[in-house]
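Final report, Chapter 2: Outcomes

The project's central promise was a pipeline that accepts a single protein chain and returns its three-dimensional structure in a standardized token representation, suitable for archiving and comparison. That pipeline is now operational. To close this chapter, we reproduce one record exactly as it appears in the project archive, with the input sequence first and the structure output second.
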Amino acid sequence: MLSLILLIIVSYLIGSIPSAYIVGKIFKNVDLRLYGSGNLGSTNAFRVLGIPLGIIVQILDISKGLVVVLFVTQFFYSNLPFHNFTPLEDITVLKIIAGVFAVIGHTYSIFVSFKGGKGINTALGMMISLSPIDVVVSLICFIIILLLSGYVSLGSIMASFAFPTTMFIRENIFHVNIVGYKTLIVFSIITAAFITYNHRENIKRLLYGNENRFESLWLIRIFKIKAPLRNKKKN
């Protein structure tokens, strides 16, 4: 039980490392919490710090999910202190636990007054180690939505649900035997719901038509999302 508690604490602390805040301070002497959306994620980093530094933030955030899943769990790998009812190996269960707490740490960082990002990149790092094929499909979905709309938030939400959807299709339609499917599909749906919850303000802005859009990435303008009419003057 002590090993499990240590795993949770270490995973949370690694996830809590505020990459966007650190990069902003070191290279621009900027506190990202005071600029743009105020979010400590890669999207706000791209917008405020520029593309090169935004890429660095994104890589660092993805790395947090990968580090806790691929390396940290190895130091704590032992028999689970509870019975494993899933078809997954004990090490995979530990990876899921570690990844979840890394995402929570990224979203509610203890180092910056429990502020943070939306958890997309850290969750991506975790998912890569669990099911890389579904991650690839999700990334393709993200890119397509981004190019069609210019909205990173919309692409992120759709990509998070593309992961369990792809897994469901592969298992039930193409009859690919995914080890631990019943556990992973539930876990991925919960993760998608958590990511969507973290985007609740973005969803409100999308509905009202005033969400921040990356015009330079809105390359396929087949349709335009018009803002709803508000405060219309009476005749």
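Archive annotation: The CA atoms of residues 36 and 48 lie 6 Å apart.
This record, like all others produced under the grant, will remain available to the consortium after the project formally closes.
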